[in-house]
Design a protein that fits this description.
4-stranded parallel β-sheet; 6-stranded mixed β-sheet
C-alpha cells in the first residue's frame, strides 16, 4: 500500500496541532501588520490575539503566501512517502498554489522522490480543512493517490461554505469583493449570504438580521447536505453565534456531529469579527 501524506495551507484555519491530530500537516501563510511585524498564521498568533490586534489597526494587515522554504521544509518531512497531496486556498484568492508549484519544481531538482500533487480547493477557510479531512479518511481506507485526487476534483464543486458576516468592509478593503456588494451589507440591516462560486466569493442571497441569517444557513444545510449528521461551523470571534446555530441544528438533528472551527489571522483579515458559516458537502454540483 502506498504511503500518502496530506498537506494544507493555513487558510484551512486548523492550527498545526489540530491538523496533526487529524492526520495532515499545515504550511503557514503570513500576516504583516502596519508596524511591519510579520506573524505566521496559526503559529505566532491565536485567533483571539489576532482579532484584538485587528481592532486596534488603522490599516488592514497584509497577507502573503507561504515561503518557498516553508513548503520545501514540509515536503522534506515526507521524503520516504510515495505521494504528497497538497490542498490550497482558491487560486483566485491567493498565489499560494503557485508558490507550492514553484517549491515542488525546486525540490524535484534536488532529487526529491515522492510525487507531489497540487489541489486547488476553489474555496477558503475550514472548507479547505474539509478537503484535507476527506483525503486523510481515504488514505486510512487504503485508497490510491489517484482515487483521492479524483474525489478532491469532485469536491471542488460539491463542498460548500455559506457565510454571513457582520460587515463586508474587510472583504472590500482587502479587494476580495466590490463596493456595491459591501454597500448592500450596510443598508437597512441587510446581511448578504456569501458562498464560493468557481473559486471566488459570491453574494447568493440576503437576509435582514442575524436570526433570519441563522435560519437561512440551517435551512440550506437541511435541504442540500449529503450527510445530515455531520457539519462544520466556522466563526470569527463569535462563540455565542456558534452556540445559537448549533442549538438550531440540534433541534432538527439530535445526534448531529458539529465540528467548530475558529477563523485564523489570514482569513480573519478579510472576514473581520462576527462571521458565521456552515461547511458541508452538497448533493448537487454547485456550478
Amino acid at each position: 500500500m502506498s504511503k500518502i501524506a496530506v498537506i494544507a495551507d493555513s487558510s484551512c484555519d486548523f492550527t498545526p496541532e489540530r491538523a496533526e491530530k487529524a492526520g495532515f500537516s499545515v504550511v503557514p501563510l503570513n500576516v504583516t501588520f502596519e508596524d511591519g511585524t510579520v506573524y505566521r498564521d496559526g503559529i505566532d498568533l491565536t485567533g483571539e490575539e489576532f482579532f484584538a490586534k485587528l481592532a486596534a489597526c488603522k490599516q488592514l494587515p497584509k497577507t502573503s503566501q507561504p515561503t518557498l522554504e516553508a513548503w520545501m521544509d514540509t515536503f522534506r518531512k515526507y521524503a520516504d512517502y510515495d505521494d504528497i497531496i497538497v490542498i490550497t486556498v482558491s487560486a483566485k484568492m491567493s498565489g499560494t498554489i503557485n508558490g507550492a508549484s514553484m517549491a515542488r519544481r525546486m525540490i524535484r531538482e534536488e532529487g526529491f522522490r515522492p510525487n507531489i500533487h497540487l489541489v486547488d480547493s476553489m474555496t477558503a477557510s475550514a472548507t479547505v480543512a474539509a478537503f484535507a479531512l476527506e483525503a486523510v479518511r481515504m488514505v486510512k481506507e487504503g485508497k490510491s493517490a489517484q482515487e483521492i485526487l479524483s474525489r478532491m476534483m469532485y469536491l471542488q464543486n460539491h463542498m460548500a461554505v455559506y457565510f454571513i458576516f457582520d460587515s463586508l468592509e474587510y472583504l472590500r478593503k482587502g479587494g476580495r469583493i466590490g463596493s456595491a456588494t459591501a454597500l448592500a451589507g450596510r443598508v437597512m440591516g441587510i446581511k448578504p449570504l456569501l458562498t464560493f462560486f468557481e473559486g471566488e466569493p459570491k453574494n447568493v442571497d440576503k437576509v435582514r438580521g442575524l436570526q433570519a441569517g441563522y435560519k437561512k444557513l440551517v435551512d440550506g444545510f437541511l435541504k442540500n447536505a449529503v450527510d445530515l449528521h455531520h457539519v462544520m461551523v466556522i466563526s470569527s470571534c463569535a462563540p455565542e453565534r456558534v452556540e445559537i446555530i448549533s442549538r438550531m441544528l440540534q433541534t432538527h438533528i439530535s445526534d448531529i456531529q458539529i465540528t467548530s472551527v475558529e477563523i485564523g489571522s489570514v482569513i480573519g483579515t478579510y472576514v473581520g469579527p462576527g462571521g458565521i458559516a456552515l461547511v458541508y458537502e452538497e448533493k448537487d454540483a454547485r456550478w
